[in-house]
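User: I'm new to structure prediction. If I give you an amino acid sequence, what do you actually give back? Let's try with this one:
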Amino acid sequence: MSQQATKASWALFEGLFIIAALVAVFATFIAISGVDPDNPTAGATPWLLGLNFVVITVLAVIVAREYIAIQVSGRGEGKGRLAKRFVLLFGFSALIPAMIVALFIGAFISRGLDNWLGERVDTIMEKNAQIFQDYVNNFEGTFDVDLRLAALDIENFARDVKASLAESGSNDEINAESLATDASKAFTDGLRSELGFREFLTIAVLGPDGVELIAEQSVQQPILVPPPQSAFDEANAGNVATTLYENRGIATALIRIQEPLDGYVYAVKNFDKNAAVQLREAEAALAQYNNAKRRSGRLQYIFAIGYTQIAALILLLAARLGLEAAGRITGPIGRLAVAAHTVREGDLTVRVPVSGPQDEVYALTNSFNAMTEQLAEQRNALIRAREVEEDRRKFVETLLAEVSAGVIRMDGEMIITLANRSAGEVLGISEIMPGQTLEEVSPLFERYARDTLERIAPVDASLDLNINGEVRHIRLKTAPDPAGGCVLTFDDTTRLVNAQRQLAWRDVARRIAHEIRNPLTPIMLSTERIRRRYASSIDDSDGVFDRCIETILRQVGDIGRMVEEFSSFARMPKPNVSPFDMRSLLQGTGFSQNMVSPDVEIEFESNTDKAVYRGDERLLGQAFGNLLKNAAEAIEGLPEDADVNGSIRVVLHEDERGLEVTIEDNGPGFPEDVRDRLLEPYVTTREKGTGLGLAIVNRIIADHGGSISLQNRLDGLRGARVRVWLPATGAGADENQSSEEIQNSSLFERVEESAPWR
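Assistant: Good question. You get back a string of structure tokens that encode the predicted 3D arrangement of the chain. For your 758 residues, that looks like this:
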């Protein structure tokens, strides 16, 4: 109950104060309408303006209080911004007419002040004062000239008197005393003529001490006014000292003379008393006008303050009305705004209470609640669909990242949009970035992709690509993308093709060994039997029979050894896994080869003192021995005029990935035309070679999970370079594991990428 009483009291106070504000508006308007231009700040105007300031301040506090109350109460309902708009709307409704009126009043006051205090009035007032001033100046100038001329005439009169005295035999100088006692009638007549001719009221000659010596006065108006001391000072300075007596209508003038008479000439003349009065009145009017003009700015300031206060009161009243309207009609809309803000933040469970009459706001609230319910259902469906899509995307990304096949997708302009890591590994590129053209990555792939886009049909092809100096067999498949563009999948099938070739050659070697081994034994036995039976009965004085028998046996032995090589290639022994020191193995193999080829220097380098490796020491020793043997034989096969000091350099490097063994020689190197095929069976560059040595080495290295590559030296020197890579092995391997089990076990980490040469 007390709160209601407080609110009622506050409302009553607001109402009374608003009425007081309206009264203040009218009072201010009436007050500034009657402001005295000469003294704008006189009267009750300043007090009324100060009272208006207090009223404006209190009204502003009332408006601010109401606005803050709406903001606080509507913070949870969203009424603050709408209330602000209502205030702006009502404020502009009052401000625009106020501005128009301000422009009109400002123009009216400015035009009125210009009419009363403008340049035209300035000119009239100044010219009016100047007319009378010119009259005074003209009178003073004429009086000055007349007195000077009269002084000259008096000096001439004095000379005449002096001449008369000289004729009479007197040599005395003319002075004040002699002039007064001895003045001739001619001198007196001269003064009288000057009095009449110059229209003087009085003309007199004064002594140096200012005492009158001789004077002539007008009979009608005899006036003799003693000159002031300031006149004597000005006359002594060589000027004519003029003094106006405006109240008496006369003017006096004093001038100094020295030769032949020392003294002053003094004259009195009539002056128009009305002209003097009008001059003073004109000057007073001009001063009053200038004062009013100086205070015109203050007058405008008073008008501006008054009107500004009126406008401020009107604006505050309009703002109060706007706040009242906002507080009455923005409740439901504010609740909808808050609910909409909550929905924007993601909460779709919000509902607006429906109450009141079934009007537009009621329908809007129902529609909002139905909309939020529908949005909640759609969002749940989108979340479920997104989760499914995200799982599918992660599955595809994982699949593309883990598959060994390369996958590239490009658009219709042959711009790559997707490429997995394996694509770069297969093509020997560090990374394929989206945005590159397919032609930059592989021009050959680009031709197949264009063919796919033109025919809108898939392509399946097998290609041989030279990648980083090695020929790789690539299986390529292309398919058009329904979204536009093309998808390429490709894989490096070099190992598969080589394995297939190995299997085929092993089968061929097994069949050849079987077919050749069967007749070799009867041939050898028959040859021995012929030698034993017919050696004594045949005349072999020339040794032909024995040489033929030896040739047959030797060739049969060579064929037998070739059959053994075929058998060894066709039936490789199983690796016998055990730990051993690879450094010692390489040093021992090099020493053995040095015994066979003493002219070839074998150097050994290693980055470790001991390199423990788990593998078949015998097979790996056979493989490295075969490589050293091939290098030594290649050097020894150089022409004698080559003048080469044969050398073989063996480098062992161990790191966390495994072992790398590099064998370099300064022989003729590998022929480029067959270098990529030397690891295949029956491919050789020697006349008596079988082409199985490097194939067996490749098989041994492959059974250990490693790789071998044949290169020519790249350091500007002649010779070959063989690099063998054996992956790191674990501990605890079974020594009876088969070669397939060894390759697939955790002992060997298969390394597809070639390590850099060292």
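You can read the tokens as a compact description of the fold. Here is one thing that stands out. DSSP finds 20 helices and 17 strands in the chain.
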